[in-house]
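lol ok so funny story. i was supposed to be doing the assay writeup but got distracted and ended up predicting the structure for this chain instead. priorities right. anyway since i did it might as well share w the group, maybe its usefull for someone
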Amino acid sequence: MNNNSANILFDQNGHRCIAFHSLVQGHGIQANQFLLIDGDHVALIDPGGDLTFTPLSIQISKYINIANLEIIFASHQDPDIISSLPRWLMHTDCKVATSRLWSRFLPHLASTFVNTRMESDIAERMIEIPDGGLSISFGKSVIKCLPAHYLHSVGNFQFYDPVSKILFSGDMGASLVEGNAGEPVDDFDKHVPLMEKFHQRYMGSQKVTALWADMVRQLDVEIIVPQHGKPFAGRAVIDQFLNWISNLKCGIDLLRKDSFRLILT
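and the output, tada:
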């Protein structure tokens, strides 16, 4: 993992997972996008905003015919996750898997598409994930959509690929790094300051993070790759992260009465 643009996370028996990093420079926060290939089947996870569409399209075209994109997995509704939606809908026949909660809102991002097609068309291209999660067929296997509500979105999902044993964790595990976001965390203690404030602000509460960690411990996971920053590779560092996040006071845990004081001018 040493390419600042793309990393092959997994490549065996026709099943591939490829991560792209820092495709857009100087515009907002660094973000990772993920391409999944199983034989002739193609999916994207959290493809990003409008600025990301063109460079990501160029990059994935090195591996697949973009017209063959079947499905986009969107962990939640944020602009850096899925605001490129109308361009993917216009240029491919893909479907979009997202929380049932956000499937009603995402069409608002795609007014251009809705204005040129029947409104029912976009509804037919949404795969609504119920709160309890869903397994979606992908090639010879499935992608498991796992509940991650309030981490940080109220309707949030993460995606687990049982073939590669990769958990695509969205904002959970995100870090604000300089340099190569594709290199795995090699010193967890030194990495904590790069993600602590982010998690304190964006994760709902320590109760939720502990419940999430208990769920992940039941999975056979070899890599956790967040949407921002470095991945966690190997059980040792994954366990360090799960133990850390299980005990982190965050979100509503940190609110006090003076968090809601009136400002009088």
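The mean pLDDT is 90. The radius of gyration is 18 Å.
back to the writeup now i swear
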